[in-house]
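Prompt: I keep going back and forth on a fold encoding question. Comparing notes only helps if you start from a blank page. Show me how you would write down a chain together with its backbone fold. Please set it down just below, with no commentary around it:
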Amino acid sequence: MSSENAQPHHRIDYIELACDDLAAAKSFYSGAFGWSFTDWGEDYSAFNDGRLNGGIHRQGPVLAGGPLVILYSSDLEASAISIRTHGGRIVKAIFSFPGGRRFHFSDPAGNQLAVWSDKSAQEDT
């Protein structure tokens, strides 16, 4: 999730898929669709489908809910405030990862999404 590939503020920028067998998932998506992969540890691999970047993470049994849609933000804290103001709920507080910081939220219907930023100037909250 680099800033070089980031879309404008609050646009879908990255999608994550869950799996219980990372090697099998990579084999499927590279074989079926030609996706390329970059591993980030034993439990995560980033992919590129030729246009969009995303990731596949091993989490054990896959839960209902589908892929995690991730939006980009130029101001992570302001985005969190806006989500709360408009009826969303933060379900995973801001945390750091190798490419920046992000948080997860649920919309009023219960769909879970995330927002990330490559800005790491402020400490995790």
About this structure: The domain at 3-117 is CATH 3.10.180.10 (2,3-Dihydroxybiphenyl 1,2-Dioxygenase; domain 1). The two ends are 20 Å apart (CA to CA). The CA atoms of residues 46 and 55 lie 4 Å apart. Residues 121-125 have pLDDT under 50 and may be disordered.
